[in-house]
Specification:
The complex is a heterodimer of chains A (410) and B (467).
Chain A lengths: L1 H32 L4 H12 L2 H25 L8 H17 L5 H30 L3 H24 L23 H8 L11 H18 L1 H11 L1 H6 L4 H17 L3 H7 L11 H11 L4 H16 L1 H7 L6 H37 L8 H16 L8 H11 L1
Helix pairs in contact in A: 1-16, 3-8, 3-11, 3-13, 3-14, 4-5, 4-6, 4-11, 4-13, 5-6, 5-11, 8-9, 13-14, 13-16, 16-17, 17-18
Chain B lengths: L1 H9 L6 H8 L2 H21 L9 H26 L7 H45 L4 H23 L18 E2 L2 H13 L4 H12 L2 E2 H19 L1 H11 L1 H6 L4 H28 L10 H11 L4 H21 L7 H27 L1 H17 L7 H12 L2 H19 L6 H18 L19
Antiparallel strand pairs in B: 1-2
Helix pairs in contact in B: 3-15, 4-8, 4-9, 4-12, 4-13, 4-14, 5-6, 5-12, 5-13, 7-8, 9-10, 10-12, 13-14, 13-19, 14-15, 14-19, 15-16, 15-18, 16-17, 17-18
The chains are: A mainly alpha (410), B mainly alpha (467).
């Protein structure tokens, strides 16, 4: 029993380790083929990241990535694929920046108003996809992709010209938010810990909110009735329904919650960096969030690590370009390779675990009932195989369908 | 199988003679009549909307040009989903196709570009196949990963290959197209008829002129791939084997079909088609590779696939329908920014929605049980909510609801909104044509997602020997 526990633990750790090793191998190969030294590139990346300024950059970058991961993971928890996080956060950021620029309030209220608008717009836009799913049976993957384009190419393109105050201004965006609507930075706090003065860098206040969100996500998903309903609907919607969980309501709530979280992704930019929405607003965080959620297997600590990893890679791209060590695009290739390798590795490990489980069940029952050893215990171990090792991280998008098919075939 | 189904359902339902004639017509004749009806609507709308751009040769040739990448990638999606693998990565494979197409066209000429683009896309497809078929990774996850990988890889390779060839990290050097040809007699004939200025006849000739004048060889090649794909998938033994992977892989396995092999084949072909679409963009549309030039066309292709109900001809109709507003807007918006013709398109959409509302109403009326049930449900909610349903909008909505089922109501509301939009504006904004395809797909899904038939096993993981 003990050795099998060790084996299971080893398997859980094997997936990320394998993925990381494979990604390093591929990136080294690509670097060598393109005529750069892989050793120089990696040492350059690590030496940059070990500076305090770069660490602040990494934290600032990891903040929206982590929030995006949480937004995607809420959907994943019940097998909803919210590809629309991208459109939801861009639309929410635009609306929040626009509304925020129209007021001049007392600091905390102003910031709270901007956050409220962002959360509401993101939630409503995602809720629309949920509504289409429960009322008309429209698949959320397709509808959210379409809503992405309608949000950025339609709504923002239509409204942005109206939001621009001065058409001759070089920066074509919403007016600058008054200083009361800026979120205070955390430099004071950071300097107490590090005893070092930050030069020209601010650790954005959204960092704290991201941490609180992560804790909240962990508690709600793992320690509340709602979280249980959510996971149950994701694992087996039929059983959840039989247990009194209304599936349509859960879809609506999960989509809306996912979109509401998505609304917060752009807030680092709006509240701490640019204080306005313009054409050059940061894009692609929604898709990066999908990667973060997948890498982190929808668990709060896992996603935090994944967000830090992606942020580290993102921030090390600029120095690579400056020093000319390697093409900065190598980091995108690394990110995508890690992602692909990780999802494949998780899947392989999952299969090994499942066959382990089947074998163990067969061994255990062989001594008890020699006849018909496969069918009976197999049906028992099907769902058990899923809940046992995955109890910590909960179900995820990849093991979900597998669990279903396992039951069907068993 | 479908024939017997139609036969049994036709017997008890009394139909009018028009509907019977309609059903008796062969498929191509029905499509031709519908296209003619569409042109008639366009002609009528443009006669009082102050534009003549809707039926020019430019409109149809532009439609063909803009539809081609959507069509090719859509056919790619068709092959993938018919073998049961959802392909969100079409966009990424298309990007690989643009890059490989550009380098191929620069090094070996346009045909080389076509083939390189095809290979580049196929490699993307192979990656997707390895992840989804071999390792059972969720199809959408793998697709998203490919969409993240492809633009980064393309930029990385551009940085490596294009600067010394006269390009830059974001742009390739210029490449040549495959050339064009004109159908000799027809082009002049249509041009002449177009010149007469007769209502409808000349408009029709104008559109046809655009379809036979200066056709690109690549376009012709792409159009020929539509019947070829349909024939391969629905008329050959290989096609049957491919399709069983998407409908019931376990049954296929028990009949001795090598499911993995056929799934691999379908997904790689899918990537090859997406790569062709990318090569078309580079070689024929822009004449060079540029970062981000696919501009979400892979997703529109996915939309065309759904719109076309997972059939090759349907994908083509969807691609043309989505290409048309782009083509119009290209001539419609210039430095002065007009948008009059695009506004006229709003009326066309409104007419289409109203037409659908009538169709849905008649369909509900033909099945009294359904209509009663539908109105009953809507009526119930209307009566229970009566205490606060007093505003004019609400009475309008409940009034419409009494006419038919929820489909009829929704279509009528949407048609009214589009019509009001048309009435209240002088010209459409430039974002309207860019958004129209996506909105159209949502509308189609809202009305038809129950009647559309995706391959039964699309998106499901399959493992050998589990049956």
């Amino acid at each position: 029993m003990n050795s099998s526990l060790l084996r299971r633990l080893g398997l859980s750790l094997a997936a990320p380790a394998l993925a990381a090793a494979f990604a390093l191998l591929v990136s080294s190969l690509v670097l060598t083929l393109s005529g750069s030294s892989w050793l120089d590139t990696y040492s350059e990346m690590i030496s940059t990241a070990s500076k305090l300024e770069s660490m602040v950059d990494i934290l600032n970058r990891a903040t929206p990535l982590f929030i995006a991961g949480v937004a995607v993971a809420i959907g994943f928890k019940m097998n909803l694929f919210n590809i629309g996080v991208e459109g939801q956060y861009i639309l929410a950021s635009f609306m929040a920046a626009w509304v925020g620029s129209q007021f001049n309030l007392w600091g905390p209220i102003h910031v709270a108003l901007i956050l409220f608008v962002a959360v509401t717009v993101g939630g409503l836009w995602a809720g629309l996809a949920g509504l289409l799913k429960v009322t008309r049976g429209v698949n959320e993957v397709i509808s959210t992709i379409m809503l992405n384009f309608i949000a950025t190419g339609g709504i923002i393109a239509a409204l942005l010209p109206r939001a621009i105050d001065d058409p001759t201004d070089a920066n074509q965006g919403t007016p600058l938010i008054a200083e009361s609507g800026w979120m205070p930075d955390l430099n004071g706090l950071l300097e107490i810990f590090t005893r070092e003065i930050l030069k020209g860098r601010q650790l954005g206040g959204m960092f704290v909110i991201a941490i609180l969100l992560g804790i909240g996500y962990y508690v709600v998903v793992n320690r509340t009735r709602f979280g249980f309903d959510l996971r149950a609907s994701g694992m087996n919607p039929f059983a959840a329904r039989a247990g009194g969980v209304p599936p349509k309501k859960m879809v609506l709530i999960a989509m809306t919650a996912s979109g509401a979280m998505a609304g917060l992704i752009g807030m680092t930019e709006i509240l701490s960096v640019n204080h306005s929405y313009d054409q050059g607003f940061v894009k692609g965080l929604g898709f990066a969030g999908i990667a973060v959620a997948l890498l982190g297997r929808n668990s709060a600590p896992g996603m935090a690590v994944a967000a830090l990893l992606f942020a580290f890679l993102d921030t090390s791209s600029a120095p690579l370009q400056v020093t000319g060590t390697a093409s900065p695009e190598i980091v995108v290739i690394m990110q995508a390779t890690i992602l692909l390798a990780a999802v494949i590795a998780y899947e392989v490990v999952n299969r090994v675990k499942q066959s382990d489980e089947v074998r163990r069940a067969a061994l255990a029952t062989e001594s008890v009932a020699p006849t018909d050893a496969m069918s009976g215990p197999d049906a028992m171990s099907g769902p058990d195989a899923m809940s046992g090792p995955d109890a910590m991280s909960g179900p995820d998008a990849m093991s979900g369908p597998d669990a279903m098919s396992g039951e069907v075939t068993a | 199988m479908t024939d017997t189904l139609h036969g049994t359902s036709k017997l008890p339902v009394p139909t009018t003679s028009v509907a019977e004639h309609w059903k008796a017509l062969p498929n191509w004749a029905r499509w031709a009549l519908m296209a003619a009806a569409g042109v008639l609507i366009l002609t009528i709308v443009q006669s009082f909307s102050g534009t003549d751009l809707l039926t020019t040769p430019n409109a149809s040739s532009g439609m063909l040009r803009w539809a081609m990448p959507i069509l090719l990638a859509g056919l790619g999606g068709l092959f993938s989903e018919r073998v049961g693998v959802i392909n969100i990565g079409l966009e990424g494979m298309m990007i690989l196709g643009t890059w490989c197409g550009a380098i191929g066209a620069f090094e070996f000429g346009p045909w080389g570009g076509l083939i390189c683009g095809l290979i580049g896309g196929a490699l993307g497809g192979l990656l997707h196949a390895i992840a989804t078929v071999q390792f059972g990774v969720d199809h959408i996850i793998s697709g998203v990963a490919i969409n993240i990988l492809a633009p980064g890889l393309a930029r990385f390779l551009s940085d490596r290959f294009f600067p010394q060839r006269g390009g830059s990290i974001s742009q390739s050097p210029r490449v040549d197209g495959l050339g064009t040809f004109t159908v000799p007699g027809l082009s002049q004939l249509f041009e002449k008829i177009d010149g007469w200025g007769i209502f409808f006849l000349s408009d029709m000739a104008g559109l046809l002129e655009g379809l036979v004048t200066d056709i690109r060889y690549f376009t012709l090649f792409g159009l020929l791939l539509v019947p070829a794909s349909a024939w391969l998938l629905f008329r050959t033994r290989l096609g049957l084997r491919l399709r069983i992977c998407g409908e019931n892989p376990k049954a296929g396995e028990s009949l001795g079909v090598n499911i993995y092999l056929h799934k691999y084949l379908g997904v790689v072909v899918s990537g090859a088609f997406a790569g062709l679409a990318g090569a078309f963009i580079v070689i024929e549309l822009t004449g060079l590779y540029r970062g981000g030039q696919t501009n979400g066309r892979g997703f529109i292709a996915l939309a065309a696939l759904i719109f076309g109900n997972w059939r090759a001809s349907g994908v083509m109709v969807g691609a043309m329908l989505f290409g048309y507003p782009f083509a119009i807007s290209l001539n419609d918006f210039d430095e002065t920014g007009s948008g009059v013709a695009t506004r006229a398109l709003l009326l066309v959409v409104a007419i289409g929605l109203a037409g659908y509302a009538i169709f849905a109403y008649r369909k509900d009326a033909a099945k009294p049980g359904v209509a009663a049930q539908a109105t009953g449900v809507v009526g119930d909610s209307a009566t229970s909510d009566k205490s606060f349903m007093k505003s004019p909008t609400d009475s309008y909505v409940s009034g419409v609801a009494k006419l038919g089922g929820p489909n009829v109501m929704l279509a009528t509301v949407l048609a009214s909104i589009t019509f009001l939009w048309y009435l209240l504006t002088d010209r459409a904004a430039d974002w309207v044509p860019n958004t129209m395809p996506y909105a159209l797909v949502l509308v189609v899904l809202v009305f038809a997602s129950q009647s559309l038939k995706a391959p039964a096993a699309a998106g499901q993981a399959y493992r050998r020997g589990e049956a």
